[in-house]
Design brief:
By secondary structure, the protein is α+β, with helices and mostly antiparallel strands. 20% of the residues lie in helices and 42% in strands. It has helices spanning 32-38, 84-96, 120-126, and strands spanning 3-10, 13-21, 42-51, 54-63, 66-75, 80-81, 106-112.
Length: 133
């Protein structure tokens, strides 16, 4: 697995979820800000939000007058975090130890497919499995 892209209905809302796994291609996982900027989105604001096993980054985005939000985090199966540097360090240590330091971290991004504001706490209670990868 390198990339998983799926649409999900959670409650009455639809979401697009992307999971990137660099186990066999370390170049596939990159800083989420780079990806969003490369897709033409401008960062309006950002903040950390608590999630199971750690925290995620909630970003408000704008492109051509359109507004949207997204959340993202990295996960090593034990802890969820938002630092690309922590991801790069963890994956480097994993390669040096030939995998003995633990599983390859993945990047998870959740984007609502509607313009309605999302209650991320309700999303987490309704779809807890995504926070336990």
């Amino acid at each position: 697995m390198n990339i998983i892209k799926r649409g999900y209905k959670v409650g009455n809302e639809y979401f697009f979820i992307t999971i990137l796994d660099g186990t066999h291609n370390r170049h596939i996982v990159h800083d989420p800000y780079y990806c969003l900027k490369g897709s033409g989105w401008n960062m309006v604001s950002e903040k950390d939000i608590p999630i199971d096993k750690g925290h995620a980054k909630l970003v408000d985005l704008e492109k051509n007058g359109e507004q949207k939000e997204a959340i993202f985090w990295f996960s090593d199966g034990q802890i969820n975090y938002t630092s690309p540097m922590k991801y790069w360090w963890g994956t480097t240590v994993r390669r040096f130890t030939l995998g003995k330091s633990g599983p390859e971290p993945v990047l998870i991004m959740v984007q609502p497919l509607t313009k309605n504001p999302v209650d991320w706490q309700v999303f987490q209670r309704t779809f807890p499995d995504i926070f336990n990868l």
